[in-house]
Structure formats: structure tokens, C-alpha cells
Amino acid sequence: MALMQNAAIHYWEDLYNFSDQKKKDVFSINPSQNVTFCASRINGCSNRRCLKVNANIKGYKNVDTINGKKVNGIHVEEMTFLGQRNTDLIKDRSIEEPNHEYLLGRFVEDRFVYRQSFVIRSYEIGPDKTATMETLMNLLQETALNHVASSGVAGNGFGATREMSLRKLIWVVTRIHVQVDNYSSWGDVVEIDTWVDAARKNGMRRDWIIRDYNTHKIITRATSTWVIMNRETRRLCKIPDEVKNEVQPFYLNRTAIATEDIDSEKIEKVTDESAERIRTGLAPRWSDMDANQHVNNVKYIGWILESVPINVLEDYNLTSMTLEYRRECRQSNVLESLTSMKAKTAENKPNNTVKEDFECTHLLRMEDDNAEIVRARSVWQYKQKHMI
């Protein structure tokens, strides 16, 4: 009979209330075995935490140092439990896999695609208990940065490669288009894939798809265009050959959104005359700044929505958003948000049965000199729960 070298033991009980004898029975480990314990405090409640104990013991002399303490190869940690519907996730994981793999991300498809999963937190949802557009954009950005960090070419900049860091270069986004079919709810787990490709002669395109972790259904698609800027002069520049050599091995000729479905039309400028609503006095906070010393591109969404009527925010879903970034914004700038609206007749829908969709055009500009920061376009669809 073969000697068991690896084991994974799962206890769906309250370990904190174990008797002393039961604890001894549970944690009695043969020194020749590798054992993984996984326990969750369920007891009829929806607690999303579990206790994981990893043991890699080949003898009593196998001593590791963790946080300055010597231990016998046993590592205890609390890890996130992926919801009530995912009890198989931990049960099926082998001891050889790294802890928190679903949080740290991994490469798939011959390392052309980077994949990472996230739990939708309570502070990432809106009044309707679903994730917001800002949440989705933050997750897209996080996945992109982790893609670079895990690629082996990362420098010391914010998503920059080594050659970019040597030349004081940073990536800046010029345009991003997001299409949302369904917003995840609090506690849901989403899985994000991202990859890159060339964009014309002097840019890079990054695409994403977001799936529901349980159903594998694609719920969001996004595409974006990036260029390089000098960190000190704040001027755009060509991508150096050395940087191209770093990123080209990761290029994948694939699009998340079909060409005919991408919002590539020019975004018209909203003026004082065409705007239906204008919101003034929008001041960036210190926390709105990112590591590239300007306002993070996701922050603009909140300011854009400041000039959208409240009844639209309450009764409609934001199903599509395109942002065209014109210039940087610093903490000292004060902004104005302008929005114009028009009805967008939905295709293949009978008249008088549903309310019309809205298409909004937005502008963020400097309050002092009206210099443009961002142009944007959004599409809003009447929420199904309000259907007649």
C-alpha cells in the first residue's frame, strides 16, 4: 500500500468549540505526511471565512522561520471563502497550488492572458446593492497593474516596465470603452481576463472581459488605448524600441468587443448652451491622486455622474461608457461637470412597453479657463424591476 504523502482535510464545523480530545484527534499529524486542514465556521450562517492549516512535514527537524518565529513547517492562516455556492473551490485545490491563487492571479493561454478573481465588497456597491461602474473600472485597473507586476518585466513605476522606469516613462490612458450586461451583487465573485496588443504605430491596446465566477457568463467587456508620457516633462513620446521589445512578446491579436460594437465615434463637445445640467466646484482630494502624480482616471467617473439627473441614476442602469481623456488633472484644479441628454430608442423593442434608453454626452473641464479634461458618452437602460 502506497504511503500517503499529501492530504487535504476539511472541517465544516466550529473549531473554536472543539473539545480538547477532538482537537488532538484533528491535529495529530504523521511527520512523514503533508497535510492541509481547511475549516469554515458555517453553522447555518453565511460566514465567508475559513481556517486553513498547511503542513509540510518530512521530519521533526524540518523547521521554517515565519515572521521571525521558528515553526515546524506548519502555516496557519485565515483565508477568504468564496461564498456559499463555492464550497468545491477549496475542496478541489491541491496542496501544490499557492495560497490565495484566486486572489493573486495567474497566467493562462500560454501566458498571453492574465486572469484574476475578486469578491465584490460592501464598500464597492451602490444603493441598489450592485457594483458600480467605478468599482468595475477599479478592478480593471487592478488586474492590468497586476498583469504587469507578474510578467517579469515590471520596473519600479506604476505599471511601468524596467526600460520605462530607466527612461522615466509612464503609461497614460487616452480612451476606454466599457460595456456592461449585468452588474454583480455584494458578495459575488468575478473573474477578469486581460491582455494587450499593439494600437496603431505608437500605442498599446488593453482589453478585458469580466465573467461571473460561478456561471462563467461574460458580464462586462472593455477595451482601452494607452500611450507613453515622460514623467518629468509630462509630454507624450514615442514608445522606445527597448520598451517594445519588452511588451511585444505579450501581444495577443484578440478583441474583447467586436469591432462593429466598439464606440469609436467622435464624442461631441458639450457647451454651456447644449448642457442640460452643470455641476461646479468639483475639487480633487489628496486621496484622488495616484502614484503618477495626477488624478486617477477612475475618479473622473464620479464627477461625470454629478451632473446626471438623480432620477436617471435611480431608475436606469449604466450599460455603456466611453471616456476620452484630454489632459491631466492635479489636486489644485477645480472642475465643472456638464451633461447633455437625448432619448435613445432601443432596437427590437415594441413602442409603449418600455421607457426609452438615454444617451448622455459629458464634459469635465477646468473651472477657471474651461480647458477640457475628459469627454465622455454613456448609455442608460431602464431597470427591469420597473418594467410595466
UniProtKB/TrEMBL annotation:
Keywords recorded for this protein, A-Z: Chloroplast, Fatty acid biosynthesis, Fatty acid metabolism, Hydrolase, Lipid biosynthesis, Lipid metabolism, Plastid, Transit peptide
Protein name in the entry: Acyl-[acyl-carrier-protein] hydrolase
Domain called Acyl-ACP thioesterase-like C-terminal: residue spans: 275-381
GO cellular component: chloroplast
Acyl-ACP thioesterase N-terminal hotdog domain residues: 113-245
Any one biological process term the GO annotation gives: fatty acid biosynthetic process
Function: Plays an essential role in chain termination during de novo fatty acid synthesis.
Subcellular location: Plastid, Chloroplast
GO molecular function terms attached to this record: hydrolase activity
Species annotation: Forsythia ovata
Highest taxon of source: Eukaryota
Main localization, broad class: plastid
